[in-house]
Specification:
- By secondary structure, the chain is α/β, with parallel strands linked by helices.
- The chain contains 18 helices and 28 strands.
- It has 3 domains: 296 residues, Polyphosphate kinase middle domain (polyphosphate kinase like), CATH 3.30.1840; 176 residues, Endonuclease, Chain A (2-Layer Sandwich), CATH 3.30.870.10; 178 residues, Endonuclease Chain A (Endonuclease, Chain A).
């Protein structure tokens, strides 16, 4: 039977999300440097997208790899569609930057010089800075179609130069070409010039080079110069079926090859003449489908390093993480959780509460074992240091380390080796699976035949102090014995035990999908019986066709469904089979990262919190953990959070059937409910009431 349902393309949906990120740069109610930071985030997101997703499609399009899900022709068409949409978005990025950001900087007396508009009072500084700080690091390399002696490194900026011998008629001699790698690993990308009359001046390093380019090539007339850069395939293929020693060796070997991966994007200054571009395409053997026009300044993710010379510019003020009054320095987290489950919301709550939980485990004489999963951790991690202290204090510590966490493979391997040398029991990646669950378990031994309480922690985010200040996540502490036993079974499964049983914890590849189907079926049954079927799902991505079909079925049965999906959402609203489904997307100060699921259950709602999105990889090819919320007060807290987010008319958009980000209000900046800040105030008020 032919499937009647339709879906958005995953990568086109992701581009819709990234465009929504870019739109934050246009919001003049935000502090100026926060708007600038969103251009940086947009550009960084796009870079990774090309290095992973587009690189995969390009490999299929060129026959390098094969896929059961994508043909060569469909891959070719998708890459073309992606490039068209990216080109459209880049036009918008240029407009926002040139017509909104630069004038706003100038209004605050911060002026960006271009290479040809340096004022006379800065000529000498620019010449001297170039001669002393930049010139020693420049290495012009000739380029010809016959012999290319320059390898373009991934993500590095190069200046492509076209010139002619002096005293020769340019029309009668062939031009010569050079490329130079910009040395801003040695010199800052942005150079601050001396302030004059209350104005602050900044130049990109490439503009300083362009202003002095004639001195680099004596005996030549420099006709023109333009920036270019290469993005290379960064997806390292690790044999999932390999055993642990092989995976470790593959990681060590293959992460070094990221810098020399296949070209997936050649970005160039869109003002470059076509014949200049044609020469570079031939010389570097660039596939025309890899061409992506950019602005005259590339690598705009570097804007996060933009200097802030004018202290009068309104600073970025984020909500400051609060410490719970019920968990002040005198109160043991263990004692609190023995009496009541505890729910933390980062970054509104301090991540120090979690590290304090581990610290208590280190010094509690009854703790016999600590078990933790590691997917992405911060450098010099307090979490890792505390686990090492626990091992040195005689505790048994077991850490599952996922070596296949993309872009964190090297850090995870180094961290694992450090922990192993400190006496921690390390479990490495499971063949054919990724472990994405964010869980911790503290087991205590009984004294004098008395059963001691053990503790489980299930989270939506990584044990990473850095991202806990940037990502909006939630985590539950509980001593519920069934959940503790389930989590213990999960860790035993990671250690090789087969056929585990889970009673309350939902674990991907075991009981998660059956329980989700049962919950959806129940809401469908309620709707068919004339009662109120209700589902609210908050997640980062919704892509799995099977689960999308279940939501379509529920919509057709009359179930009211709200989806709060930050990124990829392949479900199409506004169709006859999705008329009861609304998609909300929230982009604001913090990255929405939590996964919270609500099922109405005829007035006795069921809520769940955990690590998986509804993507194929999460539901079928990973180990993910989801916990039910059993405490009624905490259920209400999550319901209030979802209600606040659905009421947001400041930073929330509807996603329509055309993948457009449609503001919920005609004047979003005038609305009072800005969900991240409203929820912070909600938690702050609740915290004060507990004094």
């Amino acid at each position: 039977m032919e499937n009647q349902y339709q879906y958005f393309k995953r990568d086109i949906s992701w581009l819709s999300f990234n465009y929504r990120v870019l739109l934050e740069a246009e919001d003049d109610t935000l502090p100026l440097y926060e708007r600038i930071n969103f251009i940086s985030i947009y550009s960084s997101n796009l870079e990774e997208f090309y290095k992973i997703r587009v690189a995969d499609h390009k490999a299929i399009a060129t026959g390098v790899t094969q896929s059961d899900e994508e043909s060569v022709q469909s891959a070719v068409e998708l890459v073309d569609e992606i490039n068209r949409e990216v080109n459209r978005q880049l036009e918008e990025r240029i407009r926002i930057y040139e017509q909104k950001i630069l004038p706003a900087l100038q209004k605050h007396h911060i002026i960006f010089y271009q290479s040809r508009n340096v004022k006379p009072f800065h000529h000498e500084f620019v010449r001297r800075f170039f001669r002393e700080e930049i010139f020693p690091f420049l290495q012009p390399v000739p380029v010809s179609k016959d012999k290319v002696i320059s390898f373009l490194r991934d993500k590095r900026l190069y200046l492509a130069v076209r010139l002619h011998l002096k005293d020769k008629c340019s029309c009668s001699t062939e031009p010569q070409y050079f490329v130079m790698k910009l040395p801003y690993t040695k010199v800052p990308r942005f150079i601050e010039l001396p302030p004059v009359n209350g104005n602050y001046y900044i130049m990109f390093i490439e503009d300083i080079i362009k202003a002095n380019i004639d001195t680099i090539f004596p005996g030549y007339d420099v006709e023109s110069s333009y920036c270019i850069k290469i993005s290379r395939d960064a997806d390292i293929l690790i044999d999932d079926a390999a055993d642990t020693p092989e995976i470790i060796e593959q990681v060590k070997t293959k992460i070094k090859k990221r810098k020399i991966g296949a070209v997936c994007r050649f970005v160039y200054d869109r003002y470059m003449p076509q014949d200049f571009l044609d020469f570079l395409v031939d010389a570097f053997q660039i596939d025309p489908r890899e061409l992506v026009p950019g602005d005259k300044h590339l690598n705009m993710e570097d804007l996060r390093y933009l200097p802030k010379p004018n202290r009068m510019v309104r600073p970025i003020k984020k909500p400051q993480s609060m410490k719970l009054t019920c968990l002040d320095e005198r109160e043991s987290i263990f004692h609190y959780v023995e009496k009541k489950d505890l729910l933390l919301h980062y970054p509104y709550h301090s991540f120090e509460h979690f590290t304090h939980f581990l610290y208590e485990a280190v010094h509690d004489s009854d703790v016999r074992e600590i078990m933790v999963t590691q997917y992405r951790v911060a450098e010099n991690s307090a979490v890792i240091n505390t686990l090492i202290a626990a091992a040195q204090n005689g505790k048994k510590v077991t850490v599952f380390v996922e070596l296949k966490a993309r872009f964190d493979e090297e850090n995870n391997l180094a961290t694992a080796e450090m922990m192993k040398s400190a006496g921690i029991n390390i479990i490495y990646s499971i063949p054919k699976l990724k472990v994405h669950a964010k869980v911790a378990l503290v087991l205590r031994r009984g004294r004098e035949k008395k059963k001691m309480t053990s503790f489980a922690y299930i989270s939506t985010g990584n044990f990473n102090e850095k991202t806990a200040t940037l990502y909006a996540d939630s985590g539950l502490f509980t001593c519920n014995r069934i959940i503790v036993n389930d989590l213990h079974n999960l860790f035993r499964t990671l250690q090789g035990k087969e056929n585990p049983t889970f009673h309350k914890l939902l674990v991907a590849r075991f009981n998660l999908i059956p329980e989700l189907n049962r919950l959806i079926d129940h809401e469908i049954d309620l709707a068919k019986r004339g009662k109120h079927g209700r589902i609210i799902l908050k997640m980062n991505a919704l892509q799995d066709p099977e689960m999308i079909n279940r939501l379509y079925e529920a919509s057709e049965a009359g179930v009211s469904i709200d989806l709060i999906v930050r990124g990829i959402c392949c479900l199409i609203p506004g169709q006859k089979y999705s008329r009861n489904i609304r998609i909300t997307r929230i982009v604001d100060t913090f990255l929405e990262h939590s996964r919270i699921w609500y099922f109405g259950n005829n007035g006795a709602p069921k809520l769940f919190l955990g690590s998986p999105d509804w993507m194929k990889r999460n539901l079928y090819r990973r180990i993910e953990a989801v916990t039910p919320i059993l405490d009624q007060d905490l259920k209400q807290e999550l319901i209030d959070m979802l209600t606040i987010q659905l009421s947001d008319k400041h930073k929330a958009c509807f996603v329509d059937e055309h993948l457009c980000n449609c503001w919920k209000s005609a004047h979003p900046q005038k609305e009072k409910i800005r969900s991240q800040y409203t929820f912070y105030d909600y938690l702050k008020d609740k915290n004060q009431k507990e004094l």
